[in-house]
Design a protein that fits this description.
The protein is α+β, with helices and mostly antiparallel strands. The protein contains 6 helices and 7 strands; from the N terminus they run E-H-H-H-E-E-E-H-E-H-E-H-E. A 7-stranded mixed β-sheet has the order 1-2-3-4-5-7-6, sandwiched between helices.
Length: 170
């Protein structure tokens, strides 16, 4: 499995990955999440142009991706999605480690993300990847803004948290 920067040729495939990965939420009764549209081509293109989208590819065909953006001086993981046909192969973790290595090399102190508390492949998974749940008082202004946007989108129907993984660089 190779990890490389995402580019224009990948974008429609990434939308397919997102739809397939989102479908896994249906089994948990989270149809709103399962039915959510994938990131638009415009959004994905912006992440590629900013050097903030990486794909894990088999035979140069993406099977997973991660999108990252700066939030309050940290690398914020906006999305990690793995094609369910390639689940349980540590591909998501490899993408997270790739982001962590790049962020540490850039001198950033931490990775952050927001996620569902009770979804096995969300908060419990990220804990195994070295993240910890942030208390409400630890949320930075950018994370509070992200959480407010998620609430407006209806995602607070299920418990969500922000998490942080210190990188030991700051």
């Amino acid at each position: 499995m190779d990890i490389r920067a995402g580019d224009e040729r990948d974008l429609r495939r990434l939308q397919d990955i997102e739809r397939a990965a989102g479908g896994c939420f249906r089994a948990l009764g989270m149809d709103l999440v399962a039915d959510d549209e994938p990131p638009s081509l415009t959004m994905l293109r912006r992440y590629t142009q900013n050097g903030a989208l990486w794909v894990a590819a088999a035979d140069d065909c993406p099977v997973a991706y991660v999108m990252v953006e700066p939030v309050d001086g940290n690398a914020h993981i906006e999305q990690v999605s793995v094609d369910p046909e390639f689940a349980r192969r540590r591909i998501g973790r490899a993408l997270i480690e790739h982001v962590a290595d790049r962020a540490a090399a850039a001198g950033l102190p931490a990775l952050t993300l927001s996620t569902f508390v009770d979804v096995p492949w969300n908060a419990p998974y990220y804990e195994r990847c070295g993240f910890r749940t942030l208390e409400p008082g630890e949320l930075t202004p950018g994370l509070r803004k992200i959480r407010a946007e998620e609430a407006l989108a209806g995602l607070d129907h299920w418990p969500r948290v922000c998490m942080r993984r210190d990188l030991g660089t700051g």
